[in-house]
Structures are given as C-alpha cells and as structure tokens.
Amino acid sequence: MSIATPVPTVNPVTPTTSDRPTFAPLPGDVDNRATYISFGLAYVFGHGSAAVSQGATPLLDLPGWLPMTLLGAGLAAGTLQATVAAMRAQRTATKPDDILSGKLLGIAWVTAFAALFLAITGLTSTVDVPDLQSTLWPTGSGFVVGLLYVAEGAVRRNLLHYGLGTWLALASTAALLLASPGLYWVLTVAGGGAYALAAALERRRLLR
Questions:
Q1: Which residue has the higher pLDDT, 91 or 117?
Q2: What distance, in Å, lies between the first and last C-alpha atoms of the chain?
C-alpha cells in the first residue's frame, strides 16, 4: 500500500508592472518639455521684468539692463535645448531623409539667430532710434522661434509644435502694434502662457 504524499501547489509569480506611465517617443520624435520650459521662463522673467519696469508709471524700479539680460539668458538656454532636441531626433531617426532633416533643423537654429543678430545690429546702426533694439529683439526672437517651430512641426508631424510656432509668430508680430509696456505684456502673457500650456500638453502627447 503506497502512501501518496501531497504535492505542494506553487502559485505562479506574475511579473509586477508599475502604474507609472512610460514615455516611448517614435523614431525621430523627441520630448520638447525642456525647450518649452526654458523659453517660457525667458518670456516670463525677461518680458515680464520689462513690462513691470517700463512705461509712464512703472510698477517696479529695475535696472535697464536686467530685462534684456534675463531674456538673453533664457533664449540662449532655450536655443541650446532646441538644438540638442534636434540632434536627439536625428540620432533616433531610422530613415536617411529623417536623419538629414534633423541635421538641417539643428543648424537652422544657429543660422536663424545669427541672421537675426546681424539684422537688428545693422538696423540699429543705420536708423537713429534709440529704443529700436529693445523692441526688435523681443518680437524678432519670438517671430524666428515661431517659424522654426512651424518648420519642425511640419517635418516631425507634431501638431502641438506646429500650433505653438504659429501662435508665437502671430503674437510676436502683433505685439508690434502696441507701445511699451503693452508690447511686453502681450509677449509675457501670450508667449509665456503658450509655453506653459505646451509643456503640459507635451506630456499628454508623449503618453499617446
């Protein structure tokens, strides 16, 4: 008579999955949140400080060099982030045409701001308008960045990027219709608000 020993049952161990979402960009696509945040801070602090310190009755007494310095630092950081993003899109691309597009878009950022610098410097040296540079740099940089976003959005088929670029280009040029400090308030609210919204929507875009 044999005695059967019970065989212990082993519950299968199922791998645990994290509830935290993971981002998996498509080839040639990148996470633009760092770029949006850098440019957004430039708009809020650079244009915002100009808005509150200029006009007939300024809200704050700030040094004249501070708004341009804050704007320049933010634009430099944003341009660097955008160039890195374009190069990252190039590295993740698989098709030769996408790789070439990534290279050209990365170079376009440097070319565009170099051309903007030459244009504004040439105008201010030939036209006797002391405040021309402080007007052209904020609006001109927003216009250039907007057109670059439109080009990048079209190449990468990124509707959020394309829409943000369209809004920035139109808002920056429309701001020229106003005198200081209204010009800077438009750039601060319309530009800074657009970047904040785009940074929030970028996360949702990557999740999809």
A1: 117
A2: 64
pTM above 0.85, yes or no: no
Q: What is the dihedral of CA 106, 107, 108, 109, to 10 degrees?
A: 70
Under a CB-based contact definition with an 8 Å cutoff, are residues 145 and 77 in contact?
Answer: no
Cis peptide before 138 (omega within 30 of 0): no
Q: Which residues contact 177 (CB under 8 A, 6 or more apart)?
A: none
- C-alpha span between 202 and 195 (Å, rounded): 10
Distances from the Cα of 16 to the Cαs of 13, 20, 21, 176, in angstroms?
A: 9, 12, 14, 56
57: amino acid identity, one letter: T
Dihedral, 40, 44, 46, 47 alpha carbons, nearest 10: 110
Q: What is the pLDDT of residues 103-125, one digit of tens each?
A: 788 788 889 989 999 999 999 88
Pull the structure tokens for residue 184: 């800077």
Q: What is the average pLDDT across 158-166?
A: 95
The token pair at 177 is 């219709």
